[in-house]
Design brief:
Elements: E1 2-7, E2 13-15, H1 20-30, E3 34-38, E4 44-49, H2 50-58, H3 83-93, E5 97-101, E6 107-114, E7 128-132, E8 152-153, E9 156-157, H4 158-168, E10 173-178, H5 182-191, E11 198-203, E12 225-229, E13 232-234, H6 238-247, E14 252-262, E15 266-271, E16 274-280, E17 283-295, H7 311-320, E18 325-330, E19 334-336, H8 340-346
Parallel strand pairs: 2-3, 7-10, 7-12, 10-11, 14-18
Antiparallel strand pairs: 1-6, 3-4, 5-6, 8-9, 12-17, 13-19, 14-17, 15-16
């Protein structure tokens, strides 16, 4: 067990009248998945976590709502910086963050519990399927020379970067669907020699879309599995995603991300042909599909054999057949590295 005692910094604090969208920015910057909600006198009045944000999103609460309306207003805290008491409280209440306050109820430090009794190979039995067979048309002419999965991102092919991120989260079995310039991809990993994870390649004879090649994997996928595009990086806690998937008894869980759209003009509001008002340069927030999913193997029989079939079609078919499809919203960063503008930012 590793314990950290951290001093309180500004990126861990947020005022009661701040907006949810402001809290999301704080949560993304401090990496601890918590902010402490304080009043105008600096006193602790609540805590706000990733889970609170996610529940607010699922309830369709406006992200401009004040954080006091969604935070935990009965936070667990200590009045003395005792490591042993912090451990006991974490185990008793099943929390991983315990703030310490002074006599004026102002937060002065934060205890964190990391890697508690965690198995490094926590998700060994969960296969990760990566769709790497596309031509990468958005990245032409670069992909006319090398396949998109091997385009380097900070000195490492994007496919290997994605695998490494999953491996760090405890996954060690990868199924990679290949087609376009597949020998380049297979040769690259063959030349890497011994790897700490297992890779199985599934070869498409023809392009099968973002879900079609799953029909070739029915003998491999007999348990809950993850599907990811080969050009997506998402900063998400996969343990939480899988727990969410199981608790809600989903057949498909879509990992969604908050996308902000700013309209650079005044938007006119009409009512019965009359102008009701003008919203100057408004901001709108949407949950978008990141291209990463958790699926149950029973979904596989919905996919036509060896035909072009996209994941959006599979989701529509699943809904038509009354399978349970849900979304796990994340406010953490995500990047579409198959897009020129995003790729240039990373480079």
């Amino acid at each position: 067990m590793k314990n950290n005692k951290l001093k309180i910094t500004e990126d861990l604090l947020i005022k009661t009248d701040s907006r949810i969208i402001d809290a999301i920015a704080k949560l993304n910057s401090n990496t601890l998945k918590i902010v402490l909600v304080i009043d105008d006198y600096g006193k602790l009045v609540g805590t706000l976590t990733d889970g609170d944000i996610r529940r607010a999103i699922l309830k369709n609460i406006d992200l401009n709502t004040q954080v006091i309306n969604i935070c935990n207003r009965e936070p667990k805290y200590l009045t003395e910086p005792s490591i042993e008491e912090a451990k006991k409280m974490m185990l008793k209440y099943r929390v991983s963050r315990i703030p310490v306050v002074n006599t004026e109820m102002k937060p002065i430090m934060l205890f964190t519990l990391e890697e508690f009794l965690r198995n490094d190979k926590e998700h060994d039995n969960i296969p990760v399927v990566i769709m790497a067979g596309g031509e990468g048309k958005r990245l032409r002419p670069l992909t006319s020379i090398i396949p998109k999965p091997l385009i380097p991102v900070n000195g490492k092919p994007m496919l290997e970067t994605i695998i490494d991120e999953f491996y760090k989260s405890g996954f060690s079995f990868f199924v990679i669907s290949v087609n376009y310039k597949k020998e380049f991809i297979k040769s690259y990993f063959a030349e890497r020699g011994s790897l700490p994870y297992e890779i199985t390649f599934i070869e498409e004879d023809k392009p099968l879309g973002t879900a079609g090649s799953l029909s070739l994997m029915r003998n491999l996928l007999d348990n809950t599995f993850i599907v990811s595009n080969c050009d997506i990086l998402v900063n998400v806690d996969y343990s939480s995603v899988l727990k969410f998937h199981k608790i809600h008894e989903n057949d498909i869980t879509i990992i969604g991300a908050i996308q902000e759209l700013r309209v650079p003009y005044g938007v006119i509001r009409l009512k019965n042909e009359a102008v009701e008002g003008i919203d100057e340069k408004p901001e709108y927030h949407f949950i978008v599909n990141t291209g990463i999913y958790v699926l149950e193997p029973k979904i596989l029989h919905l996919i036509p054999e060896n035909q072009y079939y996209d994941m959006t079609e599979l989701i529509s078919t699943a809904l038509e057949n009354k399978y349970k499809v849900s979304v796990y919203p994340t406010h953490s960063g995500w990047t579409d590295i198959g897009n020129w503008n995003e790729l240039k930012k990373l480079l």
